[in-house]
Amino acid sequence: MPAPARSAAILPEASRSALDAALAQVNGLVLGKPREIELAFACVLAGGHLLVEDLPGLGKTTLARALAATLGLDFQRLQFTADLLPSDILGVSVYEADQRGFRFHPGPVFTQLLLSDEINRAPPRTQSALLEAMAEQQVTIDGVCHSLPHPFFVIATQNPVDLAGTFPLPDSQLDRFLLRLSMGYPQAEFERAMLAGADRRELIQRSMPVLGAADVLALREAVSNVNASDALVDYVQRLLAASRSFAGIRVGLSPRAGLALLRVARAQALLRGRAHVLPEDIQGLFVEVTAHRLVPDSEHGSRDELSRRLLASVAVEV
Questions:
Q1: 1-224: CATH, from 3.40.50.300, 3.40.30.10, 3.10.105.10, 3.40.50.170
Q2: Sequence-distant (≥ 6) Cβ neighbours of residue 8 within 8 angstroms
Q3: Span 105-130, pLDDT tens digits
Q4: CATH architecture observed for domain 226-318
Q5: What pTM did the predictor assign?
């Protein structure tokens, strides 16, 4: 079997080197989480949004800040609370007497990388204020559309919903996240290195950008050139169809979920130096892309468990 094609065919060597350097820098800032960092990069390059769900103190915010610093993107952090209003996110029009009219004051959503910290501590009405921004890359205030910067990327963190003071994200909001991942506790050696080393926030503040906004947009264009064969698309379609009649799943996967799966699989292939998607890309990403989109029956376990069982039930024929 011939060796896999390298991404140099669709990615200049300088861009390849810069992308590898960016990955290395974030791995040096967020220790012991190479898989999670690769997923975050794949999400950025696929043009989606990332939901990071885990207990407090496990590096969710550190990952977001490290990405922003390394990618050279404008960054805003918004702490979601029970009294947060949609206008606190989007902005507000204020009457200014000297201008004899209203002037729009943009909210923190007008940035390139928005960290929506503990998003499920705000009520659903406020959570949904991000919906148009995430889906359309614009917001509408008083009937006027305001475009958001390019690129625009949301990293939302949330605590498990069984913790006090949390509200489950509505399905329409969950569906706007390309990927959902968990950080998990670090392995002992990496935890020891964090305890003995410099403060992660100071390291991030001293970090220099490796890429810029234009580089991110160029990499997204390169992702669109990664090939997914007809047979691979058929495999994804069989997974979608199986989800709609699978035992324990009340609401299956939509075509949007299939598009998301293929898009992030292309991004992962690019990150791994290939110009084409393999079935292993689809399988390795399936739970992170689909589990939060499934609506299970209450008797049949967690979304992650159902997603893994669904994946195992569909044979690869590519």
A1: 3.40.50.300
A2: 16, 273
A3: 889 999 999 999 988 888 888 888 88
A4: Orthogonal Bundle (1.10)
A5: 0.89
Domain boundaries defined on the chain: 1-224, 226-318
Give pLDDT tens digits for 10-27.
Answer: 788 888 999 999 999 999
